[in-house]
């Protein structure tokens, strides 16, 4: 299972608010730093372990479960889907 | 004034590029007095509005109207908004959306299309839009899907199409919509004239509820169904956006900046124009944006009501329209001393089924 952004969802950086933003038809979400880091890796190719490993190179103590939790919340918000 | 403290930058802008429109919908919420073509902002002016909006914090731009495709400079405006990093949404009747035009707009960064639907079949839809529109809508939906953009279908429900609710849900499914908004008509602008003929009956609303609930369940995961209630029949008002001047602004075709799309309803509000004042100043400092921001303007019963953080006292436009006072509680609210005005409207026999189509002679 490989997560990816739902169709029509875009992740960009907003210089006005100095934060990542997720843009989609119904609104705007401002993911926190962790969620943004996960989202940047949601390309429909990487699996959850891949994402955890990639994050592990940048941050200390990244657990697969935590990545899974972040993704579950994003799926609930309809911005991420499982490919 | 002095409310500026704590005011957040806006997230979204509704850019009403033109009031010109090929349809004649009786429920149109644009003002009775439309902005003429000569008074519309030019391309450079719109580009400046987009630049200013992005600087101010706007991330979502809804290009709307009237029919935005009636503006020959639409492609340039899509490029500008998209290059600025905004999410660009086209709100259209579908008329005039050819394959070549859509291909170009997608190329320029268009992200999403919102398509209006008036009825379930050609006969009803054409009757209710006053134009041979239905086939164009089918074509438009087909194109949007072919270009793999997310598609939202928007339906305004009223007495003359509630009976086709199931058919319209099925149509949205056939169109491949990702999202379907079924909104009972609100009475602003032109629609207010036709309130008598448009107000759904209690029976229609009761019949709609299980249909909407079943569709929402059945389509979960493939098409999101959003249902907007008929507020006159409710106990509490609809929330005013996320609060007045909190997240959204509207720019009318002539550059008038509106805290709410229907704000021209409130004739006592002094509105400002981007031709005369920078957008940021209007957002933060203008009388119109500060008039109903926050809670300071509220009176009883809203001031001490626990629902004030949920509905913000309801709709300012409706309060003005029905009571003559825009700072009153929305008279839809059963705690409002003016609720009797709404009840009287509901109890009045639905005299006429005849409505006046917009702009048809
Ligand atoms: S004032 Fe009324 S019409 Fe305007 S946004 Fe608020 S609820 Fe909607
Ligand atoms: S009294 Fe005012 S705040 Fe309370 S529910 Fe009614 S309109 Fe909303």
Automatic annotation (TrEMBL), chain A:
Keywords: PQQ biosynthesis. GO terms for molecular function: quinone binding. InterPro entries: PQQD, PqqD_bac, PqqD_sf. GO terms for biological process: pyrroloquinoline quinone biosynthetic process. Pathway: Cofactor biosynthesis; pyrroloquinoline quinone biosynthesis. Monomer. Interacts with PqqE. This is Pyrroloquinoline quinone biosynthesis protein D. It comes from Prauserella sediminis.
TrEMBL record, chain B:
It catalyses: [PQQ precursor protein] + S-adenosyl-L-methionine = E-Y cross-linked-[PQQ precursor protein] + 5'-deoxyadenosine + L-methionine + H(+). InterPro entries: 4Fe4S-binding_SPASM_dom, Aldolase_TIM, PQQ_synth_PqqE_bac, PqqE-like, Radical_SAM_PqqE_MftC-like, rSAM, rSAM_sf. Residues 7-222 form the Radical SAM core domain. Keywords: 4Fe-4S, Iron, Iron-sulfur, Metal-binding, Oxidoreductase, PQQ biosynthesis, S-adenosyl-L-methionine. [4Fe-4S] cluster binds at residues 21, 25, 28. Its cofactor is [4Fe-4S] cluster. Pathway: Cofactor biosynthesis; pyrroloquinoline quinone biosynthesis. Its EC number is 1.21.98.4. Binds 1 [4Fe-4S] cluster. The cluster is coordinated with 3 cysteines and an exchangeable S-adenosyl-L-methionine. PANTHER family: PQQA PEPTIDE CYCLASE, RADICAL SAM DOMAIN PROTEIN. NCBIfam families: PQQ_syn_pqqE (TIGR02109), rSAM_more_4Fe4S (TIGR04085). Interacts with PqqD. The interaction is necessary for activity of PqqE. Catalyzes the cross-linking of a glutamate residue and a tyrosine residue in the PqqA protein as part of the biosynthesis of pyrroloquinoline quinone (PQQ). Belongs to the radical SAM superfamily. PqqE family. HAMAP family: PqqE (MF_00660). This is PqqA peptide cyclase.
């Amino acid at each position: 299972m490989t997560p990816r952004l739902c169709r029509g969802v875009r992740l960009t950086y907003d210089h006005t608010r100095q934060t990542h933003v997720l843009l989609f038809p119904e609104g705007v979400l401002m993911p926190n730093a962790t969620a943004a880091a996960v989202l940047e890796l949601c390309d429909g190719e990487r699996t959850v372990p891949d994402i955890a490993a990639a994050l592990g190179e940048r941050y200390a103590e990244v657990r697969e479960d935590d990545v899974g939790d972040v993704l579950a919340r994003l799926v609930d918000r309809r911005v991420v889907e499982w490919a | 004034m002095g409310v500026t403290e704590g005011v957040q930058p806006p997230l979204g802008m509704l850019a009403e590029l033109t009031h010109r429109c090929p349809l004649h919908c009786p429920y149109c919420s644009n003002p009775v007095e439309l902005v003429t073509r000569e008074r519309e902002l030019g391309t450079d002016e719109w580009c400046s509005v987009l630049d200013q909006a992005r600087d101010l914090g706007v991330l979502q731009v809804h290009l709307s109207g009237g029919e935005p495709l009636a503006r020959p400079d639409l492609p340039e405006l899509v490029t500008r908004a998209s290059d600025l990093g905004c999410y660009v949404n086209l709100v259209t009747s579908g008329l005039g959306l050819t394959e070549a035009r859509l291909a170009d707009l997608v190329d320029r960064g268009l992200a999403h299309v919102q398509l209006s639907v008036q009825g379930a079949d050609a006969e009803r839809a054409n009757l209710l839009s006053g134009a041979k529109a239905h086939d164009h809508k089918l074509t438009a939906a087909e194109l949007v899907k072919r270009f793999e953009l997310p598609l939202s279908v928007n339906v305004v429900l009223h007495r003359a199409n509630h009976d086709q609710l199931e058919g319209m849900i099925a149509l949205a499914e056939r169109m491949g919509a990702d999202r379907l908004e079924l909104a009972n008509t609100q009475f602003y602008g032109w629609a207010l004239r036709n309130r008598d003929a448009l107000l759904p009956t209690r029976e229609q609303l009761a019949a709609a509820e299980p249909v909407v609930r079943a569709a929402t369940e059945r389509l979960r995961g493939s098409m999101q169904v959003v249902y907007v209630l008929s507020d006159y029949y409710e106990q509490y008002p609809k929330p005013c956006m996320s609060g007045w001047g909190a997240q959204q602004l509207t720019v009318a075709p002539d550059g008038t900046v509106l805290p709410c799309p229907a704000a021209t309803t409130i004739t006592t509000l002094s509105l400002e124009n981007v031709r005369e004042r920078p957008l940021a100043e209007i957002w933060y400092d203008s009388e119109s944006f500060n008039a109903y921001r926050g809670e300071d303007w509220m009176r009883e019963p809203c001031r001490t009501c626990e629902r004030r953080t949920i509905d913000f006292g309801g709709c300012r436009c409706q309060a003005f329209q029905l009571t003559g006072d825009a700072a009153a509680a929305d008279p839809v609210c059963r705690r409002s001393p003016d609720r009797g005005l709404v009840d009287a409207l509901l109890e009045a026999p639905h005299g006429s089924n005849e409505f006046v189509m917009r702009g048809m002679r």
